[in-house]
Design brief:
The chain has one domain. It has 2 helices and 2 strands, in the order E-E-H-H. With about 90 residues, the chain is an alpha+beta fold. About 20% of the residues lie in helices and about 10% in strands. The protein has a two-stranded parallel ribbon with strand order 1-2.
Length: about 90
């Protein structure tokens, strides 16, 4: 699922070792959730896909990265209406 216009996604990851989730920076911009190849199982990836909605806020705790700007992607609803209109007209 796309989180931003600049290439930040959150997705299931079945190829990574279980030990990396929440412990290692192994991506170049995505948030990987432990998952099972082909779906199924009881995994964080499956839970997120089934339970999330467009506009849900995603917080990555203990990250040293900057917060994505409110006008970068699907989280534009965090902006005032006038700021959103001004940015979308560009």
């Amino acid at each position: 699922m796309r989180l931003s216009s600049s290439g930040t996604f959150i997705h299931g990851n079945y190829w990574g070792s279980s030990s990396v989730f929440g412990n290692s920076g192994t991506s170049h911009g995505c948030v990987g959730l432990r998952d099972q190849q082909g779906g199924g199982g009881d995994t964080p990836g499956k839970w997120f896909f089934n339970e999330s909605l467009v506009g849900d806020v995603v917080v990555v705790k203990n990250s040293h990265d900057k917060t994505v700007k409110p006008d970068n992607g699907l989280n534009g609803w965090n902006m005032s209406w006038s700021d959103w209109k001004a940015g979308s007209a560009v």
